[in-house]
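W.,

You were right to be curious about this one. When I first looked at the sequence I had no strong expectations either way, so I just let the prediction run and decided to look at it fresh. Below is the sequence, 273 residues in total, followed by the output.
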Amino acid sequence: MVTEESCTHDCESCGESCDSRIEKVKPNAKSVVKKVIGVISGKGGVGKSLVASLLAASLNTGGVRVGILDADITGPSIPRAFGITEKATSDGTLILPAQSREGISIISSAMLLENDSDPIIWRGPLISNLVKQFFTDVLWEDIDFMVIDMPPGTGDIALTIFQSLPIDAIIIVTSPQELVSVIVKKAIEMANMMHIKILGIVENMAYVECPHCKEKIDIYGQGHTAEIAKQYGLKVLAEIPIRADISTAADEGKIETIENDYLDKAVKLIKSI
């Protein structure tokens, strides 16, 4: 018998019929989602949503169809990064995702609110159910890669997503501060417990580049991301600097106009799955 202490939370490989068992959900009959990539962080404020947006924009090339499921229900920011202001609509049966300028399909709780500043004050089960509905009740037309912008932390919502959605792999986002590095270990350990494949780590806000001499300045001090990656046998997929033009583009809804090669290694890995 599985006890609370012995449970691995990996329902897919478990034969027990316990009260907390969660089955994997599937897209509706009109939808096709081929691969699902989660973008997670151990805590908020490290630029997870920015990395998810840049990653989706980088994937969305060469005829590849990309979708973004914004699972950060209480702190949605994906629509703003892509300049999406319209509300969610329906065909009478399914929810229709919004389309970015470059054709990325996007769904977010921000598209359900009357006003963008309205808070979502919900308990965990309601949030978990909405995330699952975004996967099952949205018309995802032939999506090659779905990027899930997961909520920060390793709590109940992240656990539900890992258990109930068919995650193929995840990318962990961090920043150079030592406190964040400690929390990243928790995210890695959680993914390992859930038997979720980790593609690697992306360090955001890694440095600032001097506009004159191009020297890299570590404004947060020397990061520990490489050490953690080596400790767990993972790859550092990217080191993204602080750039004013990236922040401005996200604020103005023009994230798709940013040209960068920082995430090329991550994109190559994802496309090889």
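Here's what jumped out at me. The longest helix spans residues 178-193. And, maybe more interesting for your project: Residues 26-271 form a domain with the Rossmann fold fold (CATH 3.40.50.300).

Coffee later to discuss?

I.
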